[in-house]
Predict the 3D structure of the following.
Amino acid sequence: MDLQKITFRINGQVWQGQVHPMKRLLDTIREDIGLKGTKEGCGEGECGACTILLDGIPVMSCMVPTCQADGHEITTIEGLESQGQLHVMQKAFLQEGGAQCGICTPGMILSATAYMQHPEIAQTWANALSGNLCRCTGYTKILAACSSAQKDSCCHHCDSKTTPDC
Amino acid sequence: MRTNIAEYSMISCGSLVQALEAMDQTPNPIPFAGGTDLMVYLHFGKLPIGTYLNLHSVPELRSKIEITDQEVILHGLTTYMDVYTHSFFKSEMPILQQAASVVGAIGIQTRGTWVGNIGNASPAADGVPALMLYDADLVLASRQGQRRVFLADYYQGYKKTVRLPNELILEIRIPRQKINTNSFVYYRKVGERNAQAISKVLLAARLEFWPSQTIKDIRIVYGSVMPYTYRMKKLEQHLLNQHITPQLIAEAVHWVGHDLKPIDDIRSNAKYRRKVAQNLMEEFLTQAQANVVFSEGK
C-alpha cells in the first residue's frame, strides 16, 4: 500500500509527511516526528500512557490510525509548556511528587489538563483519570497534584472557574 | 506491534457518494470508524488483511447530533462523548448517557462510536443494549439506496447481522420518549472493575406502570450473555398487564434462567452469567416495584 501525504499541526507547528494511513499515530509521533515524550504502555487502549490531545480532547494515540489525524491539531506533552514555562499541571506534578517511574506521567498530565479545560467530559478527577493507569500506584499524589493545579489555575484566573468543584 | 501494516490498505473518501461507491467496488470492504476495536486487533496481529474505509474523512458522517420533535439522530461518527456531554440526554434518555460513561474510559469514549459498537456486533457491546432499550432504528445506505432496520432485528447470530457487505450504517434514529413519571429505567453493567472493563453481564431495562402497579410497557435487553445483544420479547409479552408481585418476580427470574443460553468465553462462563442475569432481573423488578410504591406515596 502506498504511503499517503498527511498534514496536521503538532504543538503549534505544521507537520507534513508521507505515512502509511494505518500507521498508529503513536508511531508517527515517536518515529517520524521524533517526539519521544509520548509513551507506549499496553498498545491496546487500556493503559492511557500514549494519551495525546487531538483538537484539545484526550485520545489514546495507539488507537488512532495516522490518516485520521489529517487536518487536525495535536498536543503532546512537549507542547504543554509555553515560552519556557511549565504548564500549571506540570508544575503541580513536580511539586506534589506526582511522578515515580514516569511512564504514565505524560498521558496522566494531558488527561488532567484536558479535564481542567473541559470539565464536562467527566464527573470527578478519579473519573477523568480512570483510563490512565499508574503501575507504581502513585494515585494519591497524582490526585493531589490535580487538585493543587486546579487551585493554582483558579488563583491566577479567578474569573474563569473552569472545574465544577473549583 | 506484531503487524506489518504494509499489507493493509486504507481508503479515505471525501464524500458519502464516494464512500458508498468504494463500498460497492471494493471486495469485502471493512468500514473503519473510531478504531477502538480494530486497532487492538492490529496490535496483536489479528486484524484481517484487506481494504479498510476510513469513515473519518466522510463529512456527512461527522454531522452533529440532531434532535427533532419526533426523534434523535446519531450519525455515523457520533461518539460516546458526544452523547455524554449533550444536555438533552440527561433528562430524556439517561440510559444512553449512562451507557456512554461506562464504555472504557475517557480516551475510548472520545473515539469510539455508537455505530461502530453496532457494526462490530460484539455480544459484549455496552452501547447497543441502551439503544435497543429506546427502540432505535438504523438507516443503512448503499449505492443502491437507503433502508431502515429496527435495531432489535439487526442481529441474527454471533457476529451475524442483516447488513449487506456494501452497506454503511449511516444513522441511528431513536424515537423521542414521552416523559412519564410512572416509568422506571435500569442499566447495570457487571465487569471486573468500573473503568476499562468489558462486560460479563449487562441488563438494560425499562417499564411503565399504568394504572398503579400494572406493567403497561416494558423492554428487557441483555448484553454479554447471548452471542449477540438480546431483547427478551417473549418475557416482555408475558409481563405485560401484570402487577409486580413477589410471585411475578420469581416467575421472571425463572424465565431468565430457562430462556437464556449464555456464552462461555475468556471473561466468564455460562453458569456465572446465567446466575448474574437472574440476579439482575430480580433487582430490576424489585427496584421498579419500590419505585412505584414510592411515587404513589408522594
